[in-house]
Amino acid sequence: MRKTLAAISAAVLIVAGSLVSSGQDEENVRGAFLTTRPKAEERKSSPRPARSRRRPKPTATSTPATTTTPVKSDPSPGTGSPRSREQRIGLGLTLFMRDSNGMAVRVDPAHEFREGDRIRVLLETNADGYLYIFNTTNEGPPVLLYPDPQLDEGGNYVQSHVPFEIPSSLAAEERLRWLQFDEHAGRERVYFVFSREPLSGIPLEEELISFCADNKGSCPIKPEADLWARIQREVNQQTQIAKARSYGKTETAGEREATTRGIGLSKEDPEPSLVMMTVSSDRNTLVTALDLTHK
Questions:
Q1: How far, in Å, CA of 112 to CA of 97, rounded?
Q2: Partner of 90 for a Cys bridge, out of 5, 33, 197, 202, CB 3.0 to 4.6 A?
Q3: 11, 248, 4: which is closest to 115 by C-alpha?
Q4: What is the secondary structure of 201-254 as a DSSP string?
């Protein structure tokens, strides 16, 4: 993963999808995503969530929720049981760039980067689920970047509004805390897949760790053709997108605390640089792609 991410770093991020042009529509998308963030006082008073990326264990006393609304099937890549949804799922992306003082500064994803620039991506979802990241180079075959056997014990479970960094600012070495642009040209596309249920055909946790160990540390996991075809169909589905209105501000103490402690972002914290949401609550999976073009 480290080598793949290093190759990806020399690029400009461009969202692939249906961009919402109306100011009012963007406000609606932004509001729908941010409304489920807790207030700052609620976040402080609530129990600190576990930072584990492993799937939560079902409790013996848990019972299925009842509903009077019809259950709708979902043709998305997820493998969970079909069920009705009231909330549209969304993914927030914030791009930080390292300034001359080593601080993380918010930057427009359309910014043209140069050799030596360093960036970090912060992801946030508005629901609990599973995050997958795939990469293609020059429209070649897809490779799984995340989950990774060396990160988070092979897990990829994310909690609502608890941010997730790529790469982590908690890495032991400074060079591992940022993606650095190099001199090599190339066209990369990174796919972010957020699903309420695990994707079929992608090993997780012990299964992923064991798979990679059996391959002597080499872990070239590629999705099966059927799954990748469905992901391609999903990325072509209409997705509503809202962009932040200003950039240049340093990462706040609240964002830093939420990320490093796993306590979640609040309504008072800054909005993501990009908010991407499904247009229907029936969709169980959100797929969005970032085109990475070297400058």
A1: 12
A2: 33
A3: 11
A4: T---HHHHHHHHHHTTT-------HHHHHHHHHHHTS-EEEEE-S---PBPPHH
At 277-290, the pLDDT tens digits run: 998 888 889 998 87
Q: CB-side exposure of 205: number of CA atoms within 13 Å?
A: 9
Q: What are the C-alpha distances in Å from 27 to residues 30, 176, 245?
A: 5, 36, 11
Tokens found for residue 8: 């990806």
Query: CB neighbours of 159 closer than 8 A, spacing ≥ 6?
Result: 49, 125, 128, 262, 264
Helices (H), the chain: 2-8, 23-34, 40-45, 205-214, 225-235, 253-261
C-alpha dist (Å) from residue 48 to 43, 124, 159, 250, 271 = 8, 17, 12, 25, 22
In this predicted model, what pLDDT tens digit does every residue of 29-66 receive, in sequence order? 999 999 999 888 776 655 555 566 777 776 555 444 43
Give the per-residue pLDDT at 43: 67
The Cα–Cα gap between 196 and 179 comes to: 28
Single-letter code of the amino acid located at 18:
S
Residue 214 has pLDDT above 60, yes or no: yes
pLDDT digits (tens, 9 = 90+) for 100-112: 999 999 988 777 7
Structure tokens at 290: 């970032």
Mean pLDDT, the chain, whole residue set: 77
CB 292 within 8 A of CB 179: no
- The separation between CA 171 and the C-alpha centre of its own chain, rounded to angstroms, equals 19
The two structure tokens encoding residue 269: 């914290």
Distance of alpha carbon 259 from alpha carbon 276, whole angstroms: 20
DSSP tag of 152: G
Question: For 43, phi and psi rounded to 5 degrees?
Answer: -65, -40
Q: Is 138 exposed, middle or buried (0-12, 13-18, 19+ CB in 10 A)?
A: exposed
Q: What distance in Å separates the CA atoms of residue 12 and residue 292, rounded to the nearest whole number?
A: 5
